[in-house]
Give the backbone structure.
Amino acid sequence: MTTPGTHEAVGRERAWLVIVLVMASACVAQAFGRFTWGVVLPGARDDLLDGSNTLAGFFGTLNVTAYLLGTLAVSWAASKVTLVGLVRLGLSVSTTALGLASIAPNGPVLGIALFMMGLGGAVIWIPGPAIAARVLPPHRAGMAVGMVGSGIGIGIVFAGQTAAFLDRRSDAVDLWQTLYRIEFSIALVVLAGAFVLLRSRGDRPSLAGGFGGFGALRTVRGWIPVTAAYAAFGFAYILVLGFLVARLEDDSGFSSAQATAMFSIMGASTAVGGMMLGPLSDRIGRRITLVSAFTIFGLSALLVLTGRQPWVAIASVGIGLMFSGMPALIIAHIVDNTDVNTYGPAFSAATLAFGVTQMVSPQIGGALADAFGSFTWVFVLSATVSLLGALFSSRLPDVVHEPSS
């Protein structure tokens, strides 16, 4: 099978420029537009949502519901818009949403902003790995995907560290909006770069894969377990990323700075997880690597519940590594079993399953936290679903990639 898009001979400098821009776009759409909500949740909840975890969970659900809708939109638009055009569109939506969140005067306006962030995140993430894979040799496609994911990790580190810095410098109640204002400014620069420097070669992926891409997905070896594993990942990861800071502050007595420091540690690990697990899976196989990743993620979620150091820090590292590594492995499996015409629709279809589970997950997590008065069962649920993901992954056909000569 071939990688998603035929590799084109481009200069090394040009290739790295494209990868950096795609990484930055993923940072804006995912780290800023989606995962910063986990950092600002306590402040936004207390400032605009009357302290309700259930309502905060609902706002998280708005974000991931929009992500699901964005996935559907990409399935339709990908045959009409170039991959670069999709990235520019997603960046425009995400940047506008960050600006709106930075001035949101009430809950409804913030909800609209989070909804728009979810749309932008999906529109960027689906074409992003394919764009990166095109400018590196085919045998390095997994590394390319991991590098795009590292942009998300860098953004998570930035969000966590900036939030901690702001907390040390001021006691203002709207610090969470200050963080969004800073991210909005960065997003404007990245958006300008995408329009000025990112060039499309006029390519359009073929979506002749059935409605929503499910026809193409069914051609992937092990499509049922890989789709189920992606769905399990979508449910499990967002419970941890979305409620980690709140769990540490509300249940474990961490200060805001201490909690966001753990979020930053997680983000730093995210920056290298995909690039670490992708090459490892080339040597020992996607299946065993993905089973191990799900298991480590679940155990790390349980380790957070100790509420003690150094265990929380160790858990944060494990969560970050596996958070970026698991989707890179899933995408790599789809790359292994698709060609230039079927990658796009197959990945879009798998992402729909992922989108559904991450859509319902935050609301369930927020309701559990309010019902039991703590986030303990939220993290237990995440660990349980992660172990189910490991079970699904164990059913994948295994392929070990030999190093290229």
In short: Residues 1-9 have pLDDT under 50 and may be disordered. The chain has one domain: 12-196+208-393. DSSP finds 14 helices and no strands in the chain. Residues 269 and 320 are 5 Å apart (CA to CA).
